[in-house]
Design brief:
single chain, 398 residues, alpha/beta, Alpha-Beta Plaits, TIM Barrel, 2 domains, five-stranded mixed β-sheet, globular, binds ligand C2E, binds calcium ion, GGDEF-domain containing protein, EAL_dom, Nucleotide_cyclase, GGDEF_dom, cyclic-guanylate-specific phosphodiesterase activity
Length: 398
């Protein structure tokens, strides 16, 4: 081409879909037009701007001097897009993430560039939503790693290689096990043990996650039949599971078919599910609850609109994200936040699980703040055999 170097950017508007669903398509279209105008306004006249479909935009930038400049521009773009939008009769906000790839440093073909800009975007959405990420050399290894995982998942005998570990949630007032969370483990013949934090995002991206969910849930129900009937269990659902009505219907059918009381099961969902398709997630949550199962919001507090979800969706339980627990001993602020969440749950008459408790002092503080349901390495690590024993007396609330 005529440029020695240029950059490709991909932008994704997280939160667009819910706006469309809740306020209707005319408002959605208006939002896209405003976003387009904001972009046009920031970009120099030689930049090529295109809507790639849905809530994705692409930009080809002719002139830039170095990576620092690109990142600064990316930041500016995200900030601009993240400002509230005043539309016909509503004000809405969303979270724009951006990925850059540069020619010729990162790739020399247009496919290669788009693929890498898209990967940088995916990386941004996953690790730093609302920000810009430049595709870097070490991402090349990650791309290769992701596609290795994808391949390994395709080739695996998953019903053989997947298993569940169990981590209890204790009630510190009674010392009893409140419930047990099932956590997936994958021992790949090709790659060894791969952590669920690594393979679920890949499976989610490649559409393999529904299959994993089915295999894991069948295993769980089979194992539950051996456990005392008063033990209830949490099962994690991925974002894709919760927006598909087929999957939620299947879950309920399986529970019934195995003769298990639905109120022994809590499905844990994270905010990413609501970002993807709010209306569908709400329908699924209602469906599960109407059939007697419970639903918990996982990783509460780190998303960008958690309170809205608590307001508009019906949860039986919130799980406070680990990131609030680590700094408990050192910062007053995090103590107040955790206390506020515990009090909010009390007022809403729903359960509040404090997860990620690793130390005695975190345990002490959580109890002092009024926390009752606790989970973490300090009490018990995830293990192949579920812990059904009560807490030792000294760990209970005195
Ligand atoms: P999560 O649902 O938030 O699960 C809690 C994670 O924290 C687990 O990691 C658990 O082992 C870990 N953990 C528990 N106590 C502590 C602690 O005191 N300190 C620290 N640092 N970590 C603690 P794990 O098993 O690696 O799972 C990671 C994530 O993978 C889970 O986060 C969940 O999002 C996902 N995941 C796991 N199993 C499944 C599954 O069956 N289905 C789906 N869709 N996702 C799953
Ligand atoms: Ca969980
Ligand atoms: Ca969690």
């Amino acid at each position: 081409g005529q440029h020695d170097r240029f950059a490709v950017a991909m932008i994704d508007l997280d939160g667009f879909k819910p706006v469309n669903d809740v306020h209707g398509h005319p408002i959605g279209d208006e939002l896209l037009m405003h976003a387009g105008e904001r972009l046009r306004h920031i970009l120099s006249s030689d930049a090529l701007l295109a809507r790639l479909g849905g809530d994705e935009f692409g930009i080809v930038l002719g002139e830039y001097s170095d990576a620092t400049e690109l990142i600064a521009l990316g930041k500016q773009i995200c900030q601009e897009l993240n400002r509230p939008y005043m539309l016909s009769n509503v004000s809405v906000q969303l979270s724009a993430s951006l990925g850059f790839a540069t020619y010729p440093a990162v790739a020399r073909t247009s496919n290669g560039l788009f693929e890498r800009a898209d990967f940088a975007l995916y990386h941004a959405k996953k690790n730093m939503p609302g920000e810009a990420v430049l595709f870097a050399a070490h991402h090349e290894t990650l791309i290769r790693h992701d596609s290795q995982i994808e391949q390994a998942l395709r080739k695996a005998d998953l019903s053989q290689e997947l298993s569940l570990h169990y981590q209890p949630v204790f009630d510190v007032e009674t010392g009893a096990v409140n419930s047990i969370e099932a956590l997936a483990r994958w021992d790949s013949a090709l790659m060894g043990r791969v952590s669920p934090g690594t393979f679920f995002p890949v499976a989610e991206k490649t559409g393999q996650v529904g299959m994993l969910t089915k295999i894991l849930f069948e295993k769980l129900l089979r194992e539950m039949r051996e456990w005392p009937e008063h033990i209830s269990v949490s099962f994690n659902l991925s974002a894709r599971d919760i927006v598909l009505s087929d999957t939620t219907e299947w879950l309920i059918e399986q529970i019934k078919a195995n003769g298990i009381a639905p109120d022994r099961l809590t499905f844990e969902v994270t905010e990413t599910a609501f970002l993807r398709d709010f209306a569908a997630a709400r329908t699924s949550i209602r469906y599960l609850r109407n059939h007697g199962a419970r639903v918990a919001m996982d990783d509460f507090g780190i998303g960008y609109s958690s309170l809205r979800y608590v307001h508009e969706l019906e949860f039986d339980c919130l799980k406070v994200d680990r990131s609030f627990i680590a700094p408990l001993a050192s910062t007053e602020r995090s103590r107040r936040i955790v206390k506020t969440i515990i009090d909010m749950c009390t007022n809403l008459e729903i359960d509040c699980v404090i997860e990620g408790i690793e130390t005695q002092s975190q345990r002490d503080i959580v109890i002092e703040l009024g926390g009752r349901l606790v989970q973490g390495y300090f009490f018990a690590k995830p293990a192949k055999q579920p812990v059904l024993k009560r807490l030792p007396a000294m760990l209970k609330k005195q």
